[in-house]
Amino acid sequence: MMSVDFFVLGRPVPQGSMRAILSKTTHQIIMPTPPKLKAWRRTIAKAARPCFDIPFNAPVSLRCTFYLKPPQALPSWRRWPDKMPDLDKLVRAVDDALTGIAFDDDKRVVLIEARKIWGVREGVEISVRPLEQAEPQQVPLGV
Q: N or C: which terminal CB in the chain sees fewer CB atoms within 10 Å?
């Protein structure tokens, strides 16, 4: 099967670290999601829905290229967006947004390729590809 590729226009928002808050009345842990993150995940989900008939229920690879707007005063030596947001947190937001749409569970993602680059338009290019059912390559320990 071929990969499913699509682009989501908008400012990428990272999925921050979880903070647990203990409720005084119910004694449950509540983890609030920032409004910008909720909106970004909804935008990703809306773009993904038409691309998938049913979620994959087998191992998949997830490739994300995040396009970030360069600062106005970008020094010529600064070729990479090596400041905030963190790449791994950007990927987590995409992964969570695609769960139930591109794949039935985020445990299905066994290979991730991701990068941040400067772009004219902000957004993320996403590719989800089912992996062959062949045996994964094994690397002997100690090599």
A: C
